[in-house]
Design the sequence.
């Protein structure tokens, strides 16, 4: 598949098309069923049409050999409905008026100057100067309840680095979290042997108790969905004691799998 050459007279690519393709090469894929998603598809079609017939057929065959399924096994992806608006405001240097929902549920109105967007673990964040707090802050896009593009423009310092700001923000977040007594959001009590404790690295362990040849740990798994994903995949190496809803989920899921295989063996 060597020797590709784009036919410049037939490509018809606009600056927006090139920008969308550039983002996709960085691993930043548009959300499904959005304007940007449609734009990317159209840009790829234009790019394919600019190739010779021979190479175009090779590309079409290659596309059928790969598929990306970004959806989790349990739960669902939290989509950022406003991300296309935010991306455009970043490029156009336009201020945004947002209603932002804090972690506790309180909603406040902010006027922000969006400096850049970051995607981490399938979630979008916007780094923006908050006029209310008079500083650059990180806003989680899924918590933006409403958004309005203002006619006011803004300028930003030429030496601002989104990557540096993001890395510093992460570091400060970790330090702040470590300096406070953590609040347990979704406590899960499990029973396991000592050598399997390492499988749960990364979770906040609220309490631990050694019993003969096993341990009982209580840890924060953040949510029922996360707990299902983690504990079921490790269900042959640990036992969930609490909460009852999680234990019931694993028992019922295991029973379904067992019945499925029994039915297969009886055929």
Sequence:
């Amino acid at each position: 598949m060597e020797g590709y050459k784009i036919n410049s007279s037939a490509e018809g690519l606009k600056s927006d098309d090139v920008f969308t393709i550039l983002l996709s090469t960085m691993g930043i894929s548009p959300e499904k069923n959005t304007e940007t998603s449609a734009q990317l598809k159209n840009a790829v079609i234009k790019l394919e049409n600019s190739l010779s017939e021979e190479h175009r057929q090779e590309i079409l065959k290659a596309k059928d050999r790969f598929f990306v399924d970004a959806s989790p096994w349990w739960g669902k992806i939290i989509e950022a409905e406003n991300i296309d608006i935010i991306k455009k405001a970043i490029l156009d240097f336009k201020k945004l008026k947002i209603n932002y929902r804090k972690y506790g549920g309180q909603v406040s109105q902010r006027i922000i100057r969006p400096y850049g967007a970051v995607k981490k673990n399938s979630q979008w964040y916007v780094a923006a100067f908050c006029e209310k707090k008079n500083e650059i802050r990180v806003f989680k896009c899924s918590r933006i309840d409403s958004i309005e593009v203002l006619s006011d423009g803004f300028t930003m310092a030429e030496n601002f680095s989104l990557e540096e700001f993001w890395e510093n923000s992460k570091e400060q977040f970790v330090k702040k979290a470590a300096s406070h007594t953590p609040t347990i959001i979704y406590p899960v009590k499990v029973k396991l042997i000592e050598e399997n404790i390492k499988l749960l690295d990364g979770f906040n362990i609220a309490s631990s108790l050694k019993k003969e040849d096993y341990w009982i740990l209580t840890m924060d798994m953040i949510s029922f969905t996360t707990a299902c994903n983690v504990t079921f995949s490790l269900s042959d190496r640990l036992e969930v004691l609490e909460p009852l809803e999680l234990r019931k989920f694993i028992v019922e899921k295991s029973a379904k799998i067992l019945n499925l295989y029994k039915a297969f063996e009886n055929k």
In short: Helices lie at 8-11, 15-25, 35-49, 53-63, 83-92, 162-179, 224-233, 244-265. The chain has three domains: 8-63, 83-179, 187-265.
